[in-house]
C-alpha cells in the first residue's frame, strides 16, 4: 500500500491543481483577466500558429462544447481570436492575440517561479527526478485485462 493510501493518478491530479491554483492566484494578483482552470488549460495546449477547437478539445480531454465555451470566454476578454484556417475553407483556427501572448508569457514566468518554490520545498533533486520521470517516454497505454482477485 502507498504511504498516503492514494494512487498515482490522484497524486498527479493534486500536483496539477497545486500549480493551477497558484498560477491563477498569481495572475489575478498581478491584475490579469480572471480565467477558469479550463481556460488556463486551453492556453497550455494552443499552438503558436493556431489550433482548431476540435484539436483543442482532444488535447485537453474535454468535449468540443467545453473547448468551444472556453474559447468564446477567452475571445470575449481579448486573449484569443478566431481566424480562417488557410488549409480549410470551413475551419477556423484559434490563436492568441497580442494581449494573449503577453498574458501567456506572464504565466510562463509564474510557472517557472512555482517550480523554483517546489524545488525549495521538496528539494532540487526530487524536482529534477519528477521532471525527468514525467518527460520520459511512457509509450502507449497498455491494454490490461480485468484485475485478478
UniProtKB/TrEMBL annotation:
Q: Which domain of life is it from?
A: Bacteria
- Entries under SMART domains matching the protein: HTH_MARR (SM00347)
Alphabetical list of InterPro entries matching this protein: ArsR-like_HTH, HTH_MarR-typ, MarR/SlyA-like, WH-like_DNA-bd_sf, WH_DNA-bd_sf
Q: Record's Pfam families?
A: MarR_2
Q: What residue stretches are annotated with the HTH marR-type domain?
A: 28-127
The entry's protein name is HTH marR-type domain-containing protein
Query: Upper lineage ranks?
Result: Bacteria, Bacillati, Actinomycetota, Actinomycetes, Kitasatosporales
